[in-house]
Write a structure and sequence with these properties.
Length: 192
């Protein structure tokens, strides 16, 4: 019998994957622009709880611009060794500054400096330009903590649909979908 809580089921799946030494952070994030043109890329999932699923980026990146135009997204997480896939869909909201600050402070210093140096998704004239910007930022923050750039922070997908796929023999896979239903969830089983 499936659990009534898909977030709890997701967190249990993460524990199973981590027990097998699987990196559970990478996820494919799909967005679409105002015209409905889709775009997908890998992101690092940096939080999952009852509020939703969090990731971080530059607010001028293509994904962030897509989300400003069309604040709805989908995640797909696939762990081939376990034959498990989890799909998450829902509206997207920006994380509060304090949550973005907290995560930014936990990042490696080099990644913090890189966030300042990169104009993510913009045209880069040369690799030397990026490396030069990194050196400039390194000097600016020399000997002091690196603060979060105002143009960088987090988003949360607030799920209204979560699907769990489990590989089975003879392609008789298990597919269980949770659909937001008021304050709770409705569960359906799907054909593979």
């Amino acid at each position: 019998m499936p659990t009534a809580d898909p977030i709890g089921a997701f967190l249990e799946a993460v524990k199973r994957a981590q027990a097998q030494q699987i990196d559970t952070a990478p996820a494919a994030l799909a967005t679409s622009d105002r015209a409905g043109r889709p775009s997908v890329r890998m992101v690092l999932l940096r939080g999952a709880d009852a509020r939703g699923f969090a990731f971080f980026t530059n607010y001028a990146s293509r994904k962030a611009v897509d989300l400003a135009e069309n604040p709805y997204a989908a995640l797909c997480i696939h762990w081939p060794p376990l034959e498990e896939q989890i799909r998450i869909e829902g509206p997207v909201e920006r994380l509060p500054d304090d949550e973005s600050d907290e995560y930014f402070a936990s990042r490696a210093r080099g990644s913090q400096l890189g966030a300042w140096a990169s104009e993510q998704s913009q045209i880069l004239p040369s690799r030397a330009t990026l490396e030069g910007r990194y050196v400039e930022v390194s000097h600016r923050f020399e000997g002091i903590p690196v603060t979060r750039p105002p143009f960088w922070g987090g988003f949360r997908i607030v799920p209204d649909r979560i699907e769990f796929w489990q590989g089975r023999t003879d392609r008789l896979h298990d597919r269980l979908v949770y659909l937001r239903d008021g304050d709770g969830w409705r569960t359906e089983r799907l054909y593979p």
